[in-house]
Amino acid sequence: MRRHAFRTDAVSAAELARPEFQPILEVESGRTVAWEANARRQEALDRQRIERAVAIAVRADLLETGAMLAMPLRTTEAPDEIAAHLACTAVAYGLSPRRLLVQVRADEHCEADRVAALARACRGRGMKVALHSFSAGPRGMRLLAETRPHFLALDPALTRDLAASPSRRRMVEAVLRLARDLGATVIATDITKGADLMSLHRLGAPLFQSEAFRGIAPQSPGAGLSSRWPAVHAA
Fold first, then answer.
1. What is the pTM assigned to this prediction?
2. Does pLDDT of 3 surpass 60?
3. Cα dihedral sign for 136, 173, 189, 115?
């Protein structure tokens, strides 16, 4: 407990001001569903990133509105140990493990057995699980069937220039239908164009993530998509 308290105190005001997190947003309302910890930091171990992310998120009051903390994890450490460390760190900061969304990569380069083990370990401790970088390849489909994740974050290659590609739209539509059947909520990641966001909205993708839309405040909930997200056509 002292170690966790020490790390919290060690996070400075300057660090709190850094763009450490990216929101996962609901397309319809603009509500922040989760804040994803920046996975590009170069700490050697997942547990270092875990302690830092939880400390900053709690001190910055990011989760006060009920949003989850999304934590990308690698598979280089023992699944049970890293899941236990994440759960214990959250509890030490007064955060229920049910408010954690663990993200594990499910692309064709992942170690499927280790990803599945990590997903099981985190689910067993009450955390939600997202398969990240999902591209509907053989490994991704295997993991989708085996882990039954709460969320499915699409590989940007599936959604890039979606508005201009009928074949890609059909593929994304099929993935959305499969995800719904398995009880997983789809997150469209790295959206860079307003037209692609509009297409995803029409196809029924409920959540998205984008550097291009960071900081854009939605307008009134009753307005159309282009009215709620003023830069949707300009992006």
1. 0.83
2. no
3. negative
